[in-house]
Amino acid sequence: MGRRPFPHRGLREGTLLKTRIREDLSTASTLPGTKFTAEVMEPVEKDGRVIIPIGSILEGQVTAVRNGRRIAGAAALHLETRAGTLPDGTHYVVHAQWTDTSRSE
After folding, report:
1. What is the pLDDT of residues 61-101, one digit of tens each?
2. For residue 6, is pLDDT > 70?
3. Which residues of 17-30 are buried (b: 16+ CB within 10 A; e: fewer)?
4. Is the whole-model pTM more than 0.85?
5. Angle at 25 between CA 98 and CA 66, to 5 degrees
6. Residue 29's closest CA among 80, 75, 83?
7. Are residues 85 and 73 in contact, defined by beta-carbon separation less than 8 angstroms?
8. pLDDT for 27-63, tens place per residue?
9. What is the dihedral of CA 50, 92, 85, 9, to 10 degrees?
10. Would you call 67 helix, strand, or coil by DSSP?
C-alpha cells in the first residue's frame, strides 16, 4: 500500500498538534538518526471536521542533538516527522518539525 500526503496539507504553518512521544529521548543518550513515534493526544480540526484524530501515530527521526552547556546554551533535540498512520490504518507522508511547547519561558 502506498503512502499519500498527510491530511494536514491544508493546515497553516505553525499549527500545533498535541502529541506524546512514545520512546525515551534524551540529549545525553539519543543520537541523530534515532527513530521515534508519537501519538496524537487531541484531534486536529479544519472547517469543523476532524482531519487528524486522536490516536493517530506520527513516525520520524532525530536529526540533531545539542547537549546543554553553560556557554553554548540549552540542550535541544531536533525532531522531524516523516510519516503518519491514522487509527483506521491509512498511511501518509508527513513534512513537519517539532517544537516543545511544554516548557515555560
Report:
1. 999 998 877 666 788 888 888 899 999 998 888 777 666 65
2. no
3. bebebeeeeeeeeb
4. no
5. 70
6. 75
7. no
8. 889 999 999 999 999 998 888 888 889 999 999 999 9
9. -30
10. coil
Question: Cell 520520524 identifies what position?
Answer: 60
How many angstroms separate the CA atoms of 97 and 88, rounded?
A: 24
Hey, CA dihedral for 65, 31, 96, 48, is it positive or negative?
negative
- Which residues, 6 or more positions from 47, have their beta carbon under 8 angstroms from its beta carbon? none
Report which of 61, 54, 49 is spatially closest to residue 10, judged by C-alpha positions: 49
Nearest to 45 by CA among 12, 83, 82: 12
Cα→Cα distances 101→35, 98, 104, Å: 21, 9, 8
* Residue length of the chain: 105
